[in-house]
Amino acid sequence: MRMIVNWVLSALAVWFLPYIVSGVHVRTFTTALVAALVIGFVNATLGLLLKAVTFPLTVLTLGLFWLFINALMLEVAAAFVPGFEVHGFLAAFLGAIVLSVVNMVLRWLVKPAVDGK
Q1: Domain count for the chain
Q2: What is the domain extent for residue 64?
């Protein structure tokens, strides 16, 4: 159940992304659901590999390089999902930051209800 809630929350974050970042377009909520799934898969595979390989650079930049990797993962996901478009690296960079913050806030808001506290 928790995995489905996290997936829907991620889809909501993707759905709100075009309202905050110009250059990002999501056609429908179904597209946002698929995009959230693909973003999660890309981050779990390619993103994890890139983060492991670039770890020394990430340490030198105090973690800021991971923002570039997250932006790249957002662009990769957009390449695979029809109806989910990211126009330019700046939109991907800002989108990755906003997506992370919105995801964090949504999960913080829903966490007490999911945990049953």
Answers
A1: 1
A2: 2-115
